[in-house]
């Protein structure tokens, strides 16, 4: 009893994790160089840095994904030097990592997922009663009100994220690592998740939080460690934390403006969608898009705001080669003439490109290198008579690598080995090379650092300046407000508002959504 | 082996060390070294029989149909599929050829073209289910394997049909004519060696062409400011390849020269190397196997592409069936059985990945030769057929384990 009190008393400054002089090299890249990190009991420690700075790599070293011996330096957890050889080793001492790509089995239930690899069983026979009641308890802790029998595939991303955390809690976690947990969450879900981390603090669970959303980081973090080019730059304390301060430290200079300026030169109408109706691919009687009209003019940057699940991605993908949906009706016009967009090839030929929000599943061939990924949507552009001109292709790949500032050892690096932000730039390069008239960007800056965001906005402005039309789907309202000439607001498959860029505000967008909700209800 | 992978180690502008390049191409070099090691081993184990001109010619003849099917199988596997039916299909097409030529006295050329058409049709009918109706290729071609095995029994009525017209036999038994006339080298006491001059000329021409093209492509890379591999490594590699080709053609020349099938096979290999490495078609197949959804969203008509892959596979299986029938000079109901296993093994030994998106033509060809040389060598040594199977199985497993181990280490 005495002991416990004593240790509780000093818990706020007891260091539980120390990583010292971590250096990790990949062929051709020094991903980490002499990095130091310490985490004290019950704190939320954020790690920030540009894309490719080495954040995920550092966490993979910590959790044993990169086994002891494949890096230099020491990992000391609760006073013991650790030699992890895999995730199970780190989990045994209470370090649990939740990767950005969720690792749940979609066709198993919530309860089965929570205890996967950690089954409540006697002699190999699962005790279903205990599984169910145990899962119930854990779901209560993370505030997820779902039946443990529900299949994970029926949950949205936000709820899946909570299941992941419940799964971590089942393992008696002491240090929880979250790699960009909120990148694909709506604001409400993000807040719920961050509140949860704060609640964990009280139970003495420390968290390491990696995020590019600096507002969130500055809200919840007790300390922030900044990485740049694989090196520790500094660790800030609570009282020093501020968004501008973080940015300056991350990129090594201060960024005055988050959005590059632009004088719009808007021409005639380029792209129109009229009375667009799309049905759900499985529940074919359900309308997902309920008669949408929208237009983009040459040189115009148009945004679509809306909550998760409002049908924005479905709208874009159904227009782009009918890659989503069933029973699609309506008309698409380019330059006033009706065009056939019934296959991706036809849509691309009509001058439309769509940059997916899910780069790993829909955007990249992860086992191939940058060069091949950049040219795949426009092979005709680097070939003659079906024969690829290797040098022309190499020139294109190097050119786009430079233009979008992809950080890699060369264009021969596998895209699967790139950091998340740089993968996004490869997908963007691919579509830039296809030379579209209309570029549809779906969450183009998800998981991208501030500096790179600025670069992407600059590219968008340049494309608009060339007389192309840009249609951006984004869940980050400040971003839409910062770069768009016009913003559509979408809710439940309908356009419920249209605002001029200079008149729009977060409140007006939210009000349009709420008003739309009233109409549909 | 491939300039593509060689360069992957080197950032443009950066100096790459020979060691790094060898490391990053360990798999390619390892495969060649394995083939050479196996050859040297059997050369000793068979007391020098393996490299005898007549035996080397035999190895080519015995493996030509496996290699030809391995080319198609490579596309299938890179595309993320599998084809279990190729053995049965080749047997069936051999049977059709026998019926057409022996029973209906059809002109061999016309019959052969018809048979290739039949192969394409079979490929199309299987490809349809796989590509457009998304039935797993494993199931569709497993069904095809049974169907065509049964059909060849049915149309042959259980008999063997033969012999084939002599013109057709030439496909597998013939050699290219010696347009320059043979030369004879006196050997003192021993019997003089007669060499097939045309074969020698072709061998030398091929080596010169290889040297010329690799030099010009190197020069053009450097001219455009991109890095080529270090000259020493390049020189050693080219010298070894050249020496091997010269040795090989010399050995063939001292028997009857280049067999006709080898001409067919070499042209096909060249065409498939070209397709996979240089054409948009090949690139799309790799993209399809690497991530089908992303390929589709990049504007690739994934369904049509899959369909074509199976049509090509069907035609190659048909060609292999013709060659095998011509070699045996009869069509038997058992022809082609089990070929699919050798073909698939060759492709996997050659470094292709079960998941698709990875694999090289050269690897598949070398994989087929590794299997072929082992078959031949063990037969000469008198190893029983049962143990031959065991050893081949272990080699396949070993090759794939090596691959996976290598990948995890990287
Ligand atoms: N397996 C690998 N092989 C080669 N290079 C790699 C590998 N994994 C990571 N890298 C490189 O290491 C560097 C650090 O990558 P890491 O994923 O840690 O970045 P990050 O900070 O998490 O970036 P992001 O914010 O974009 O996720 C990058 O330059 C990346 O290209
Ligand atoms: Mg990362």
Automatic annotation (TrEMBL), chain A:
Pfam families linked to this entry: ABC_tran
SUPFAM superfamilies, per database record: P-loop containing nucleoside triphosphate hydrolases
Molecular-function annotations in GO: ATP binding
NCBIfam families in the record: GguA
Keywords in alphabetical order: ATP-binding, Cell membrane, Membrane, Nucleotide-binding, Repeat, Sugar transport, Translocase, Transport
Name under which the protein is recorded: Xylose ABC transporter ATP-binding protein
Alphabetized InterPro entries for the sequence: AAA+_ATPase, ABC_carbohydrate_import_ATPase, ABC_transporter-like_ATP-bd, ABC_transporter-like_CS, L-arabinose_ABC_transporter, P-loop_NTPase
CDD domains named among the record's database cross-references: ABC_Carb_Monos_I, ABC_Carb_Monos_II
Signal sequence bounds: none
Protein family: Belongs to the ABC transporter superfamily.
Alphabetized PANTHER family for the sequence: CARBOHYDRATE TRANSPORT ATP-BINDING PROTEIN MG119-RELATED, XYLOSE IMPORT ATP-BINDING PROTEIN XYLG
Domain ABC transporter: start-end pairs: 17-254, 271-517
Species of the source: Devosia nitrariae
Automatic annotation (TrEMBL), chain B:
PANTHER family: ABC TRANSPORTER PERMEASE PROTEIN YPHD-RELATED-RELATED (PTHR32196), XYLOSE TRANSPORT SYSTEM PERMEASE PROTEIN XYLH (PTHR32196:SF32)
Identification of the protein by name: Xylose transport system permease protein XylH
Chief location bin: membrane
Role of this protein: Part of the binding-protein-dependent transport system for D-xylose. Probably responsible for the translocation of the substrate across the membrane.
Membrane topology listed for this record: Multi-pass membrane protein
NCBIfam families cross-referenced by the UniProt entry: GguB
InterPro entries recorded: ABC_transp_permease
Membrane spanning residue stretches: 29-47, 59-78, 84-102, 109-132, 138-156, 193-215, 231-252, 258-276, 305-326, 346-371
Position of the signal peptide: none
Subcellular location: Cell membrane
């Amino acid at each position: 009893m005495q002991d416990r009190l004593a240790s509780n008393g000093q818990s706020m400054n007891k260091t539980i994790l120390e990583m010292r002089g971590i250096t990790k090299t990949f062929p051709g890249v020094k991903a980490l160089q002499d990095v130091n990190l310490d985490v004290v009991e019950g704190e939320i420690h954020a790690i920030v840095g540009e894309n490719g700075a080495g954040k995920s790599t550092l966490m993979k070293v910590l959790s044993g994904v990169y086994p002891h011996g494949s890096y230099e330096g020491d990992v000391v957890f609760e006073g013991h030097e650790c030699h992890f050889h895999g995730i199970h080793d780190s989990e045994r001492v209470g370090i649990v990592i939740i990767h950005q790509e969720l690792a749940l089995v979609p066709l198993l239930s919530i309860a089965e997922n929570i205890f996967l690899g950690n089954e409540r069983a006697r002699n190999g026979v699962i005790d279903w009663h205990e599984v169910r009641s145990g899962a119930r308890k854990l779901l209560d802790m993370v505030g997820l009100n779902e039946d443990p029998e529900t299949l994970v595939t029926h949950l949205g991303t936000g709820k899946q994220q909570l299941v992941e955390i419940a799964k971590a809690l089942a393992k008696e976690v002491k240090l929880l690592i979250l790699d960009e947990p909120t990148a694909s969450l709506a604001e409400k879900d993000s807040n719920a998740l961050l509140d949860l981390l704060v609640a964990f603090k009280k139970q003495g669970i420390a968290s390491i939080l990696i995020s590019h959303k600096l507002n969130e980081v500055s809200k919840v973090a007790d300390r922030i460690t900044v990485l740049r080019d694989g090196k520790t730059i500094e660790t800030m304390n609570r009282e020093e934390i501020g968004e501008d301060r973080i940015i300056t430290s991350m990129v090594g200079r201060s960024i005055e403006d988050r959005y590059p300026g632009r004088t719009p030169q808007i021409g005639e109408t380029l792209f129109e969608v009229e009375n667009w109706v799309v049905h759900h691919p499985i529940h074919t009687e359900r309308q997902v898009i309920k008669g949408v009209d929208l237009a983009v003019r040459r040189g115009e940057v148009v945004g679509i705001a809306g909550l998760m699940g409002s049908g924005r991605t479905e709208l874009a993908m159904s227009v782009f080669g009918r890659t989503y949906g069933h029973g699609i009706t309506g008309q698409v016009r380019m330059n006033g003439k009706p065009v056939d967009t019934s296959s991706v090839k036809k849509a691309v030929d009509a001058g439309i490109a769509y940059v997916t929000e899910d780069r790993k599943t829909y955007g990249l061939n992860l086992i191939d290198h940058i060069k091949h990924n950049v040219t795949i949507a426009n092979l005709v552009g680097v070939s003659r008579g079906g024969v690829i001109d290797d040098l022309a292709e190499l020139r294109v790949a190097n050119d786009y690598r430079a233009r979008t500032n992809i950080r890699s050892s060369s264009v021969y690096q596998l895209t699967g080995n790139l950091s998340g932000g740089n993968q996004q730039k490869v997908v963007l390069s691919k579509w830039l090379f296809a030379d579209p008239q209309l570029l549809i960007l779906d969450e183009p800056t998800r998981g991208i650092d501030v500096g790179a965001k600025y670069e992407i906005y600059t590219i968008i402005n340049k494309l608009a300046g060339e007389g192309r039309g840009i249609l951006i789907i984004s869940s980050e309202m400040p971003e839409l407000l910062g770069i768009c000439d016009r913003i559509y607001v979408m809710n439940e498959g309908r356009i419920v508002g249209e605002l001029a860029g200079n008149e729009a505000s977060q409140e007006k967008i939210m009000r349009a959504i709420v008003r739309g909700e009233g109409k549909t209800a | 082996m491939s300039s593509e992978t060689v360069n992957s180690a080197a950032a443009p502008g950066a100096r790459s060390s020979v060691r790094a390049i060898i490391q990053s191409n360990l798999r390619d070099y390892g495969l060649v070294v394995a083939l050479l090691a196996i050859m040297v081993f059997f050369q000793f184990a068979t007391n020098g029989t393996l490299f005898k001109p007549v035996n080397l010619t035999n190895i080519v003849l015995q493996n030509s149909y496996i290699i030809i099917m391995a080319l198609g199988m490579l596309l299938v596997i890179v595309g993320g599929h599998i084809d279990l039916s190729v053995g049965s299909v080749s047997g069936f097409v051999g049977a059709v050829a026998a019926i057409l030529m022996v029973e209906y006295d059809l002109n061999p050329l016309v019959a052969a073209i018809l048979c290739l058409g039949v192969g394409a049709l079979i490929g199309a009918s299987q490809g349809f289910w796989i590509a457009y109706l998304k039935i797993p290729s494993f199931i569709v071609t497993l069904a095809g394997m049974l169907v065509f095995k049964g059909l060849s029994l049915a149309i042959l009525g259980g008999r063997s049909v033969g012999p084939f017209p002599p013109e057709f036999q030439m496909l597998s038994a013939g050699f290219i004519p010696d347009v320059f006339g043979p030369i004879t080298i006196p050997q003192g006491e021993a019997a003089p060696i007669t060499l097939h001059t045309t074969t020698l000329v072709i061998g030398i021409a091929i080596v010169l062409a290889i040297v010329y093209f690799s030099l010009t492509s190197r020069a053009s890379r450097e001219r455009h400011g991109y890095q080529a591999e270090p000259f020493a490594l390049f020189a050693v590699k080219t010298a070894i390849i050249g020496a091997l080709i010269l040795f090989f053609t010399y050995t063939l020349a001292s028997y009857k020269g280049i067999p006709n099938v080898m001409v067919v096979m070499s042209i096909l290999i060249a065409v498939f190397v070209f397709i996979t490495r240089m054409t948009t078609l090949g690139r799309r197949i790799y993209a399809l196997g690497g991530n089908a959804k992303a390929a589709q969203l990049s504007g690739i008509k994934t369904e049509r592409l899959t369909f074509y892959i199976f049509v090509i596979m069907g035609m190659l299986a048909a060609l292999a069936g013709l060659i095998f029938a011509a070699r045996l000079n009869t069509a038997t109901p058992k022809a082609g059985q089990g070929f699919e296993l050798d073909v698939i093994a060759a492709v996997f030994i050659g470094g292709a990945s079960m998941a698709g998106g990875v694999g090289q033509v050269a690897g598949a060809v070398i994989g087929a030769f590794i299997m072929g040389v082992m078959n031949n060598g063990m037969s000469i040594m008198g190893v029983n057929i049962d143990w031959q199977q065991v050893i081949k199985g272990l080699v396949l497993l070993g090759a794939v384990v090596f691959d996976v181990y290598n990948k995890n280490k990287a």
